[in-house]
Request: fold
Amino acid sequence: MQTLHLKLMITVNLGVMLLASAQAAEESQAVSAPAATSSVSAPATLPDKSAQEAAAAAYAAHAQEKGAVEIDQRFQQGVAMLHAKRYDDAITAFHRLLALAPQMPEAHVNMGYALLGLERYAAARDFFQSAIELRKEQYNAYYGLAEALEGLKEMPGALGAMRTYLHLAPADDAFRRRASAAIWEWEEQQDKEKNKAVASKKKSKKETGTAP
Reply:
């Protein structure tokens, strides 16, 4: 009986000790362990201003490089379509190019030539003029402008633009001879029209003078 009572006491004491130990451990954990929310809600360390500026500059450089690659691709694509006389496709490529690089004179010039291919002379004239506004010495814009004005039957303007092309273009430019021939042809045409107008005016005066 005494042995049984001793075992019971050991069991009870052991249970009390275990319970006390568990409570102590729980209290210790509650004191020393950080709250679960503290590790989640603690603000992260923000980068300093120089680091932010460096990251922004790197992103801008990457975007600029990517944009430059697409600009080159669109330009080459448009030129290839232009040489293949696929004018609608060239216009599509140059529209995208102009959206990326609206201040590129060459894009305006090539759009003008694509429109010339479709005989859309007024629209072509506008793009050649915008190219000249962006760069006064863009000599191939004057050549295209002359052709557009010829299509619009604005011969004085066409002659002026073609003469400007000859003034600005390099001596070895492939289109100089064609430009000179065009000027000669247009001047001769204008002379014929002037002579015809003078003859018509004289005839009209003569008929008026002999009328009863």
